[in-house]
Amino acid sequence: MTRCMGGNGYPGLAATEAAGGGRKENRESMMPPIPKAVSYKEITRILELTDELELNREWIEIPLTPESPGKVHKLPNGKIEIVVDADVPFEEWLTTAERKIREVAGL
Questions:
Q1: N or C: at which end does the chain have fewer Cβ atoms within 10 angstroms?
Q2: What is the mean predicted confidence (pLDDT) over 87-103?
C-alpha cells in the first residue's frame, strides 16, 4: 500500500494541497475582513467634546466597533451611547454627532 505524503510529510495532504485547500491564500480569502476599530485618538476627541458639554464621562458609552450608520441615543439605563459611523470620515461625523449629543442630553 502506497501512502500519499504532503509537502509537510503528513499523509493525505498532497491531494488537499493540490486542490488548493491547504494554501494559505485560500483560507485568508474566505475569512471576513477585520472590522475597523474606533481608535484611542477618536475616543479622546469624543470625550473632549462631551467634557466641553459638561457631561459626566460615567454616563457616556462608546462602543469600539463603528457601525453604519453611526448613532447617538439614550440607553434604557439613561447613559448616552455614541456609536461612530463606519462610512463617514471621523471629523465630519463628529460635527453632526455634536448636534445629536446635545439633543439627546437635553442641552
A1: N
A2: 92
Q: How confident is the model at residue 36 (pLDDT cuts 50, 70, 90)?
A: confident
> Do residues 16 and 6 lie in contact, with contact meaning Cβ atoms separated by under 8 Å?
yes
Tell me how far apart the alpha carbons of residues 93 and 98 are, in angstroms, rounded to a whole number: 9
Containing domain of residue 1, as a range?
1-31
Q: Is there a single domain that holds both residue 63 and residue 46? A: yes
CA distance 66 to 29: 23
The more confidently predicted of residues 33 and 75 is 75
Q: For the residues 90-102, what does the mean pLDDT come to? A: 92
Identify which of 58, 31, 45, 34 has the alpha carbon closest to the alpha carbon of residue 94. Answer: 45
- Rounded CA-CA distance 93/22 in Å is 43
Using DSSP, state whether 89 is helix, strand or coil: coil
Same domain as 80, residue 48: yes
